Each structure stands twice: as C-alpha cells, then as structure tokens.
Amino acid sequence: MGAALYNDYFGFRERPFSLSPDPDFLFWSKAHARAISVLEYGIVTRAPLTLVSGEVGTGKTTLIQQLLRNLENDVTVGLISNARGDRGDLLRWVLGAFDLDVPNDGDYVDLFQRFQDFVLAEYAAGRHVALIVDEAQNLGIDTLEELRMLTNINSGKDELLQIILVGQPELRVMVRKPELRQFAQRVTATYHLEPMDLDTTVNYVIHRLKHAGGTGKEFTLETIRHIYNESEGIPRVVNKLCDLALVYASTAGEKEVGVGTIKELIQDGLILKSSKEPLVLTERIDNVGKAAE
C-alpha cells in the first residue's frame, strides 16, 4: 500500500510528511521563528547582506518560501538556487532571476550596467530590489566577493539593493575567511538554524499529523523518541522516517506506529544516513586531551 492510500487508511487529507518544502506545514519552532525574524528584519531594514545557514534538511528553503509569501508589493524579488560559475556567470544568474534579458555576447561591464539600470529604475518606481541566493555555499570566495561588489550600487541613505544568502554551514565557514572580511563587515544580520531537540521533534510530528487531518496520536511518544534518535533532529530525515513508517503501518493493518516499525524500516535499509566528519571526533579528542593536561 503506497503513501497515497495510507491517507485514506489513517484519515489524512494529505500526506503529513511530504519531503517537498511546504509553508502550509511550517512548524514554528523557536529556531525557525528566530530565523524568519532575521530574514524579515533584513527586508524591513534593507540590510545590504543577510545570512541564514543550517544543516541539510533543517527547513531553510521552506523559510524562503514563507518569506516570499509575506513580502510587500514594494519589494522586487529575484531568487537564485544552486548558482555556480566564474566571474560574469553570477551576473547572468542575477539577471535571469529578475527575468531580464541576458545577451550572449555581453561582457561583464555590459551585464553590470544592465543590472544597475534595472535597480535604479525600480527605485525610481518606489520599489527596492532583493536578491535571494539559496544554497549559497556553492558559491566560491570570488563569487561571494562579486556579490558584495553588487551592493556598491547602494548610495547615500537609501539602500536600493539587498542580498539574502541562505546555505549550509560551509557558508558560515567561508564568510569567516580573511579574504572575505569586507564581505563579513557588510553582513547586518545572521542566524544559524540548529536541528530540533527532542521536545521540538515531538511537537513537530504531532503538528504535522493534526495539520493533515489526523489525531496526532498515530505515533506513540516512544516511537517519536526513537525517530528523534535516528534523525538527530533533522526535519527532512524525520519526514522520511515518518512517511515510510506510515506506509509500513498501513500495510500491516496497524492504526498506531510503534518502535518496531521504525526499527524494521531502518533494518530494511530505506534510510541512508551520512557519516560524521572525522574532524568532529578529532576536536573532541583534542579537547579531552587538553582537559587532561
């Protein structure tokens, strides 16, 4: 029995644990509330650079979609996802994000002038421009520096362009490099989205079950605790485990998901977990050694 059929079995209106980002299911944990506040603060204050980071699967893209929903009409937004490339390629991504023509034979100066003219025209029309870059950890140091240079379009008291960067923890590490000290100085607000703790995971699972039309009791508390241990509080992994567990439970004719179901799907190899970086272990060993000294 597939996921579409378990909806009928449990009485859900829709899948409670779909992996696609969906602001309608957004659970306002303390961390997510703070992250969206930082993003909104960046928009309201017209901060030149705003940065939000978090592990894979912590809900960053969902936050972006929520932000886009709440923007006022005086903000013209362009969204870039997974941008890569060298100098000049970034400007092509930027122009494309705002549906501007990108000439194949245009050089860097021409592309920059087109973008600057667009920003100034929006300002003259009473709007300001916001560029959101998702998965910004894919940008190299040179490309990030090029982004900073775009903020030079701003002049005087008025901020005509603001840039919001969203990415994985590597982005924070990169921005702290000495080569990007000028970039870091332009960052007005930053927030790192941590994985959920146990209590938040319990509330998260119950919230999604009820939002989809369930009772919120389809998973026992012991089962959610086991899901938390397996997922380490990463929402996307929690969703995978819960979604597959509902498939398993409905196939077995069970109305409540127990720990045994979670163990079974783990044993069946349906969840691939990434290995820890050796650096974490090394740091812990070093810290223990220093403490012993």
From TrEMBL:
Alphabetically, the GO molecular function entries are: ATP hydrolysis activity
Top-level taxon of origin? Bacteria
**Which stretches make up the AAA+ ATPase domain?**
46-188
State the Pfam families in the record.
AAA_22 (PF13401)
**Which residue windows are coiled coil?**
none
Q: Which InterPro entries match?
A: AAA+_ATPase (IPR003593), AAA_22 (IPR049945), ExeA_AAA_ATPase_DNA-bind (IPR052026), P-loop_NTPase (IPR027417)
> Which protein is depicted?
Type II secretion system protein A
Species: Shimia aestuarii
Please name the taxonomic classification of the source.
Answer: Bacteria, Pseudomonadati, Pseudomonadota, Alphaproteobacteria, Rhodobacterales
